Amino acid sequence: MYRKYKNHPFYNFYVSIFLLITLHILGTLGYYLIEKTSLFNALYMTVITVATVGYGEVVPLSNSGRLFTIFLITISFGTFAYAITSISNYVISGELNTYFKNRKVQNEIQKLRNHTIICGFGRNGRQAALQLQAHKQPFVVIEKSPQHIESLKQMEFLHIEGDATQDHVFFSSNVSNARAVIITLPNDADNLFIVLTARTANPNLTIVSRASDENSDKKLIKAGANNVIMPDKIGGAHMASLVLKPDVIEFIDVVTGQGSIDINLEEITCENLPEHLKNKSIKELEIRNISGANIIGFKTIDGNYIINPDPDTIMMPEAKIFVLGTNDQITKMKKILNI
Length: 339
Description:
By secondary structure, the chain is an alpha/beta fold.
C-alpha cells in the first residue's frame, strides 16, 4: 500500500502540504494550550513564527511559550526547505507539465471505441501499429522500454508507458471498449498472462498473440487467444513460398494491404444490413456494377467458406463477405450495404 502511494506523481507535493498543515496545527494547539489564548491568536502566532516575518508577539509569552517558539522555528526550517524543494522540482524539472500531458493522453484513450490495443512496440508491434495507421484504425500501444517510448512520441502514437502484464497498466487502455488486442511480447509466459487478463476483462475481444515456443500455441488458444502467430515460422514459410510461387505471394501481399494501401481485401459482417437488403442475392444487390468492388469470398452461418460465390448466393445477416477492391470502391460498397 505504501509503495502504491509513493509511486503517485504528486506524492512529494502531497507530503509537503501535509507537513505544512500539520506544523500549523501543532503550533496553534501549542500556543493555545501553553499561553491560554484564543485559537485565532494562537494561529496568528504560529504563522508569523513559522514564516519568520519578525512581527511582534500578540500576547506576552511565558518561558514555556518561548521554548515552544524555539522548537517551532527549528522544525519549520526543515519543513519549509523540503516543501519548497519538492514544489520547485515539479515546476523546474517539468514533472507538472508531464503529468498534465499524460492526463490529456489518458483522456483521449478513454474516448476510444472499437480500438486495438498493442502490447509491445518491438519489430512486430511496430509493424502492427503501422498497418493499423495505414488503414486509419484507432489503436493504443502499451510499452515499458524508454527507447521504444521515445519512438512512440516521435511517431505521435497514442501510448501508455508501463508493463502490460500489470493490471492497472493494461486496464488503463480502455479494454472494455476495445475491439482487439495484439500481444507481441517476446516472453510466452507474459503473453499468456495478458491473454487471460484480456479475455476476462472483455469476452468479445479478438485476441491475437505472438508465440516463440511451438508448445505455447495450444496454451495461448486455451487461455482465450483467437489466433497465435509464430513470426519465425511464418517468416520462413513466406520466404520459401516466394521461391516456389513468387508472383502469387506478391499478389497476396498487395491485396492484403502489405504491398499497397490502394488495393485492399476486407471482410465485412452482414449482421447490420438494413431490412430492405436482407436475404437478397449478390446479383440483386449489384455491388460490382455500382461500386466496382468484387465479392471474392463468402463465409456461411455454419463457418464454411465459399470461394467466388455464385451470384445467386443469399446475403444472410449472420454471414460474412470478403471484398476485393480499392479503398474508394470498398467505401462505396459499404454505403450500398449501409454499413
